[in-house]
Write a structure and sequence with these properties.
Layout lengths: L5 H22 L6 H25 L2 H21 L3 H9 L8 H6 L6 H27 L15
Length: about 160
């Protein structure tokens, strides 16, 4: 089976969500309902991009650079799985078909469906990735060869 096959990617995304679901169910006590765990994950899912941006602006390089690499990793997964794997986990936990991009879609009085969710998600992700990259280049560009026209010396 090819890694680029759409059916394979959808099954892989579903399997990852199910494995994470069982991991969460086995980690938390029975007194925590799926709805509560799902709400907690949605809250983290909604706020994590803001916290990552703040950490890239203020944290030292040993924390900011892994944060940026994590963002690139999440963006790559979003593109590969044709949607957010965290939203898939949220749906597995609680069968509510509400994602974190839905309020943005409602703000623009658009219909909420898979296509508009993808369009709005990408229209938010691309400027976020651009801003993240510009912040990292501004802060740590001196550590990267050929940035600011500084050619490393030939030894």
């Amino acid at each position: 089976m090819s890694f680029l096959n759409i059916g394979f990617r959808k099954n892989l995304k579903k399997n990852i969500s199910e494995k994470l679901f069982y991991l969460l169910r086995n980690t938390f006590d029975e007194k925590y309902s799926n709805e509560l765990i799902c709400f907690t994950i949605k809250a983290i899912h909604m706020n994590l991009p803001i916290y990552c941006m703040i950490s890239m602006i203020w944290f030292p390089p040993f924390l900011a650079i892994p944060t940026y690499l994590g963002i690139i990793f999440a963006f790559t997964f979003f593109i590969y799985f044709q949607g957010c794997y965290i939203s898939s986990l949220e749906y597995t936990l609680h069968k509510s078909d509400i994602t974190i991009v839905d309020p943005v879609i409602m703000l623009f009085n658009d219909n909420i469906n898979k296509n508009t969710r993808m369009i709005y998600s990408i229209s938010v992700i691309i400027p976020y990735m651009f801003a993240s990259t510009m912040i990292m280049l501004y802060r740590f560009g001196n550590y990267i060869p050929f940035v600011n026209n500084k050619i490393p010396p030939v030894v």
